[in-house]
């Protein structure tokens, strides 16, 4: 009986799907990428968000490609703006005195990607992601760093896939 359970678990692990986009559809002649600072032009500005997002894009490229990040004139150029940053309540508690049980942080970025080797692969597009977080008596400010990190991971994955996976 134990061996059957072990075999089923082993089979489940071995048959699970795993996708990796390292080197996705990047032409072999592409060697460099430039990530310009994403200025924060959202109506609600978080001073550190511009740098956090820019670094998240660079990290995604470093971790999943063999491209070198250069300050200027990369063969792939990422630039844009953070155009939206908003927090809204999404779950109400107590119908007598409505209070937020959870909040939704939404971040929107406008990205211009220029591929100097294949201009047809270039794009200018907005990406938006959100993250819901319960308050549980904690101040919103203490929960925002984790929410921002989560959204940055999602946004950089979307941008990376759009630029290099050609979905």
How many domains?
1
Task: List the helices and strands in order.
Answer: HEEHEEEEH
Instruction: Outline the biggest β-sheet.
Output: 6 strands, mixed
Strand content: 25-35%
Number of helices: 3
Top CATH class: Alpha Beta
The average pLDDT is: 84
What Rg do the Cα atoms give?
20 Å
**Quaternary:** single chain
> CATH topology, what is it called?
Double Stranded RNA Binding Domain
Q: Can you offer a commentary on this structure?
A:
α2 packs across α3. About 12% of the residues have low confidence. This protein has one domain: Lipoprotein like domain (Double Stranded RNA Binding Domain), CATH 3.30.160. Helix content is 34%, strand content 33%. Strands 1, 2, 3, 4, 5 and 6 form a six-stranded mixed sheet that branches. The chain has 167 residues and is of the alpha/beta class. It is elongated. It contains three helices and six strands, in the order αββαββββα.
Short structural summary:
With 167 residues, this protein is of the alpha/beta class. 34% of the residues lie in helices and 33% in strands.
Keyword list:
167 residues, alpha/beta, Double Stranded RNA Binding Domain, 6-stranded mixed sheet
């Amino acid at each position: 009986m134990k061996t059957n359970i072990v075999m089923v678990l082993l089979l489940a692990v071995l048959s699970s799907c795993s996708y990796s986009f390292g080197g996705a559809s990047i032409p072999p002649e592409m060697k460099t990428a430039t990530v310009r600072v994403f200025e924060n032009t959202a109506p609600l500005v978080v001073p550190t968000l511009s740098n956090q997002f820019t670094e998240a894009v660079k990290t995604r490229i470093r971790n999943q490609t063999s491209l070198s990040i250069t300050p200027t004139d990369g063969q792939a150029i990422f630039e844009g703006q953070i155009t939206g940053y908003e927090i809204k309540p999404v779950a109400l508690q107590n119908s007598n005195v409505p209070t937020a049980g959870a909040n939704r942080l939404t971040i929107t970025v406008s990205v211009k990607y220029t591929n100097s080797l294949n201009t047809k692969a270039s794009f200018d597009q907005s990406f938006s992601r959100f993250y819901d977080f319960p308050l549980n008596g904690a101040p919103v400010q203490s929960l925002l760093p984790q929410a921002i990190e989560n959204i940055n991971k999602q946004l950089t994955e979307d941008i990376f896939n759009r630029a290099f996976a050609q979905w």
